[in-house]
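Following up on my earlier thread - several people asked me to post the actual chain instead of describing it. Fair enough. Here it is, all 223 residues.
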Amino acid sequence: MAGKLVVLEGTDGSGKSTQMQLLCERFRSEGRPFRKLTFPRYQEPSSWMVRMYLKGLFGKNPSDINAYAASTFYAVDRFASYAVEWKDAYRAGGFFLADRYATSNAVHQTSKLPEEEWALFFDWLADFEYVKLELPRPDLVLFLDMPVSQSLTLLRQREKETGTRADIHEGNQRYLAACHKSGLAAAEYYGWRKISCVEGEKVREAGAIHEEIYRLISAELGD
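Reply from S.P.:
Thanks for posting it. Predicted structure:
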């Protein structure tokens, strides 16, 4: 019996980490068995190509590495994670929450291509990750729709609070805007559920976004 896989997806600065934390806290308080997955797994050897890419060792701009090549970097890390860490538990019926997944290639890499090639890339990506690599298809993908102006504010705030520096994705405003556009296209193409993170010009309260996400996951799980 296959398990359940729910993915939180969105552009950088969309609030995925906050929403994942709120979900984990709630499910623990309810005593619901689950496992959290986070990608990329920067601490693992399987992510070394991702780390080289994000540090700018292949080029200082995201577009220096084509969408298909960059997608393989991330897919290898996911394959290693699934094969070594959670395949058996998933096949035994476990419930998994993922902060990013194969869906992130659709958001971040599609934007490097002309729009007339997006559908072809979406099809290639699904076949590569879910068929060729045999990674589980998500049962539910929740796309956090955060406009770029607000996500940039949140990213700069995070850098200030943590003392970290932006990678070549986070530091490129034009790229973030392109990813937001391609992310919305991916959500439409694949049938993801879009979660609006703003009301007018104001970012919604994290708790309100959480309640909407929680209701959708509960419905998927049959609660």
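The helical segments are 16-30, 48-54, 67-91, 103-108, 118-132, 148-162, 173-190, 206-221. That should answer part of your original question.
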